[in-house]
Amino acid sequence: MSFWLAIIVGVLYSAGIYMMMRRSVVKLIIGLALLSHAANLLIFTGAGIVREKAPIISKFQETVSNNADPLPQALVLTAIVISFGVLAFALVLTHRAVESVGTDDLDQMKETDT
Amino acid sequence: MHSIILRTATVFLKYLLLVFSVYLLLGGHNEPGGGFVGGLVAASAFILFAIAYNVEEARKRLRIEPAVLIGIGLLTALFSGLIPVILNKSFLTGVWFHGHSEIFGDIHIGSPLFFDVGVYLVVLGVTVKIIFSLLEEV
Amino acid sequence: MSHIIILPILIPLITAAVSLLGWKKRIYQKNMGVVGAFLLLVVAVYLLMHVYRNGIIAVQMGSWIAPFGITLVCDLFSAIMVLLAAIIAFATILYSCFTVDKDRESFGYYPLMHLMMMGICGAFLTGDIFNLYVWFEVLLISSFVLLVLGGEKQQMEGAIKYVTLNLLSSTFFLVAVGILYGLLGTLNMADLAIKIKTISEPGLITLVSVLFLMAFGIKAAIFPMFFWLPASYHTPPVAVSAVFAGLLTKVGVYALIRVFTLIFIQDTEVTHSLILGIAAFTMVTGVLGAAAQNEFRRILSFHIISQIGYMIMGLGLFTKAALAGSVFYIIHHIIVKSNLFLVSGFAHKVKGSFHLSKLGDMYRDHPYVSIVFLVSALSLAGLPPLSGFFAKFILIKSALEVGQYGIVVVALIVGLLTLFSMTKIWQEVFWKKMEGSKPVLSSVSGFALSGMFIPMVWLALMTVCIGFGAQFVFGLSLQTAEQLMDPTSYVAAVLQSQQ
Q1: Pick from B70, C117, C269, C287: most CB atoms within 10 A?
Q2: Nearest CA-CA distance, residue C231 and chain A, Å
């Protein structure tokens, strides 16, 4: 399972970076979204995957060795909420930027560079 | 959007969603749910209203400016963190009150509840503020 | 009394929340903003004194025992950074009261400023690496909104670059934290420092440390990841630029110094030499970029980059004296750089432009402001007896001690080029006779100008004081560096502070 998840993380990264290399601002945002998904999945995979053992310990359970680790789940949840907020902001920013600059071509947005 | 079906349905759905959001908020301690989910559901009630009618109308139904809701929510969550400090424990430590009454049976109220209520209000305020500004923009 | 450690986070949060209750009430929010910033300053001074006398304090949030819960730790380095943040916050919020327009004020300028301060103070105080990520996001999101507040075209363009690269760095950070957790199974920084010594594959740790270097490096604007900074820092109102310039990149530097003195010290041959090389390139590219610019704030933005080079030079050398130099440099730089931005705002207010070619005659019209600029600029370039001289002197001396002559040559030449840039600004803005007609000054009242002048004088006086009180500040920096170089007291404070 970890093997396939690792492949998916790789695919998500390459897709995200490909999208970020495009010239359109909207595709840049999609690329960022894919990258943050890839990062979340990587944390989830990297911390070890446990099948069918929720991180809830019942009264009768003696050891906790087989349970899933709740911490990466909490980390991923936090990261998802944060990236949700940031992406919502980035979308509005794109909308406004496209409105005020008049194009979504990143190559045209060079006024502040020089 | 002008759709009679949606408008009529919204009138009922709004209350249903709001009640459900409070259920999620209170049930969150032992079951799936909590302040975040509850806040999102409550926000969806007002957003549905804004889509079916208009933002102006939805703002009137909300009665309170979303930014003020965020402020109240932050202060509520903060209050729950400060209760243990008054009792000379570490910031954000859970403090529980156990009691018994004739009508409600056993009562357990803890400072995490206030924290969740704070989260509920902040999420409601933030989501509604974002969506209303977006709807007004278009 | 260890509860005092949460106050630098709580005060900005309470200020922001209470200000939000009065949405659209400009005057109310303004007053709350000033009061909150003042309280933060008082608490920060007290916190530094407390830590200076009683040593490191650590508090477990929610009473969860050390490696499992989130710990707030305050050693001397954290306390100094919090105090600097509070000083800059107070100065810029005072300055904002006289410069920020009504539109921005009524859209929550002051609450946002305080939320950002909460993120900055939180990042300085946390002892948990994932919590550090969360505080980074708090300060980033507020800084995004502050950057675009007002919605001018330039701001939008600058913000797209700023937002994209900072999000990218957050992703790097998240991935690095994830891999580190997968390897070691803990997120508490003190616990990481212990467990990292037991790992059997040091190569993997070096790899993760480079990921951290990338993540914090983008935020600190080191070579070659600084391009977002000069593309965005000159677009928002000056008060916002000043806070960004003074504090945001320094949060990145703080994080670099923290993880590369506490956690990743097992392979200094690779990591710290890499940092030293990057420091040299950062200094040179920054100062050369500045030489090519003709816009007041863009020159200053490029200088931030070259100064970041000095700060991480101390980290790269990795001796006690060099780290003390870095700490001294950070203290000096935050105050001076913010003040220079404030001066640029003053020039813009009275002369109507940021372009050097359209400015002039400042010395004739406003001699006192010119003196403030001169003090800050010469300090930045490193002329004795001002603070910048001592900062550079300590760094260069410690580099000579370990025989790194290359970096010494670079640092000296960059200092010279900094002086060149500063004289260019002096020549063009303050000395030159202005050509063409005078711009209309009707909109600027004398009251507003003197209001803007107060924080500038205050910061300039602090620069002078650091210069004349260099012995005390150096002693403090040396003590800070001692704590950083020998993390045992930090680790002990975190793991033993059960409450």
Answers
A1: C117
A2: 5
